[in-house]
Amino acid sequence: MHIGTIHDVTNLALSNSPGPGPVMRTVIVVTVVGVALMAWFLLRGYGNDK
């Protein structure tokens, strides 16, 4: 990976507004949705044991 690319990605993750940058916000949202879907997938068959 070129050092300029790493610098560009780092700049995307930072913003002048308070709070996390747009990349970090996206990572957080995708993580929360992924955890919710994984919990649903794992728990949907929990009561089906006979």
Automatic annotation (TrEMBL):
Keywords: Membrane, Transmembrane, Transmembrane helix. The chain crosses the membrane at residues 23-43. It comes from the Bacteria. The keyword Membrane applies. This is Uncharacterized protein.
